[in-house]
Amino acid sequence: MASVGIKGAGIDLMEMSDHDLYFDQPLPESMKKLIEQAASLYHRPESEFMLLGAYMIQPHHPVVHVALYRYYYYKHRLAEALMIAERTLEDSGISLGFLGHWSEATLARLKASESNMAMVRYYLLALKGSGFICLRMGRRDEGLMRLKKVIEMDSEDRLGARAILKVVENAEAEACEA
What we know:
Blueprint: H1 29-40, H2 46-57, H3 62-74, H4 78-95, H5 117-136, H6 140-153, H7 161-177
């Protein structure tokens, strides 16, 4: 097992074998159909309204969050994607028993253990995604802080935040040389 920030803890962010992933959580059939229909109408305005309808009915469901996040991200509506990423951090934090701000998160505060690793990973992926969006929006310092927070809890870089940070650092170094 790869250690991820708690010395000797032996926690592996990729270990989720016995626990539901976000997309395994029960979702009413009507919501599944609504999300599938929204996906099939992606290029039409109704798609967003369907996803927002799903959000109004199931505002805390991870599948709904992911569907809305992807919709906004791929439409280059980064402010809305960031808003959903923030909501995902709040909701997944609550499910982990963590009520603090992402900047205060640690594996210990997220109560990271093999029994909830899928949700910890989901939290960290939302934090990584929000950091990337902040960078894309020109909010460099905030984006870097979010990525560094992920790296702090994922010392083996299983989630790839270090690669994004490296790209930013290389781009900045090239800009200084020019």
